[in-house]
Design goal:
By secondary structure, this protein is an all-alpha fold. The chain has a domain of 102 residues. The protein is 69% helix and 0% strand. The chain has 13 helices and no strands. The longest helix is centred in the N-terminal third of the chain and has 20 residues.
Length: 263
């Protein structure tokens, strides 16, 4: 099994999982992996699917917790335990940022444990760096620490050829640039994030990228981008849920507001 964060490849199962995931069919994608749930890599991948569902829908917390406990139970070494800790940190972060329950301390503790377990050369390090950046930006409100973590994640994703993660590091670095009024840098980052997601067919990530790019553009281009984001949002049944307010309002979104809570 390939690890969480990968896109479709030569493996027919992974191709099917990716196609479902990219369209927001997380439960169906996880069901394909259920027969392999005792395999640590497959167990981690199922967790990733369920947590992503939580982030995009604010639902499915119990399923995510169950999948996480399974992944923790079947982990055999520090690399796999570190991967599970990274997912626990992400789930706790999601619950906090979406206002379900304040689990910020748990998120910090879990990601700290992941950092202690994973070797510096671990292929999971870029994803861990990115998630630590999310905590720094959205919970600790430390843009400087977030920027450093995003840059490490960006470099690691580029070195590994992890295009999906790269789209998120582009997006969040652009978000920081927008907060500082650096419109050209923000426009470039959001454009790169959108380009990668379109090329990968990551449909559920296109609307947030379009809405974020709209914040960098003057009218009428900004309106066109938001209209396209709204079309995709409706096509996917109102996912991601946290985008609804921004797209429903006729007032341009405030640049300081995160354009997407996590990856």
């Amino acid at each position: 099994m390939s690890g969480y964060g990968t896109t479709a490849g030569d493996d027919p199962l992974q191709t099917a999982v990716w196609r479902l995931r990219s369209r927001g069919c997380w439960t169906d994608a996880a069901a394909l992996l259920a027969p392999y749930a005792t395999d640590p890599a497959a167990a981690l991948e199922r967790v990733g699917l369920f947590v992503e569902r939580c982030l995009f829908t604010a639902e499915g917390w119990a399923e995510a917790e169950d999948a996480l406990r399974t992944a923790e139970a079947v982990a055999r070494d520090d690399e796999e335990r570190g991967g599970a800790a990274c997912e626990r940190g992400r789930l706790a972060y999601a619950a906090t940022i979406l206002g379900v329950r304040d689990r910020a301390d748990e998120a910090r503790s879990a990601l700290g444990r992941a950092a202690a377990l994973l070797e510096p050369t671990s292929p999971r390090r870029p994803l861990l760096d990115f998630r630590r950046g999310l905590l720094a930006e959205h919970i600790a409100d430390s843009p400087q620490a977030a920027r450093a973590a995003y840059r490490r994640a960006h470099d690691g994703a580029a070195a590994q050829g992890d295009d999906l993660l790269l789209s998120f590091t582009w997006h969040h670095q652009a978000g920081l640039a927008l907060r500082e009024g650096e419109l050209a840098e923000a426009r470039h980052g959001f454009s790169e994030a959108l380009r990668i997601r379109v090329e990968l067919g990551y449909l559920i990530g296109a609307a947030p990228a379009l809405a974020a790019l709209a914040d960098c553009e003057p009218e009428p281009e900004a309106g066109r981008l938001r209209a396209e984001a709204g079309r995709l949002f409706r096509l996917l049944g109102g996912v991601p849920v946290w985008l609804a307010g921004r797209l429903a309002s006729t007032v341009p979104a405030q640049p300081a507001k995160p354009s997407e809570p996590a990856a």
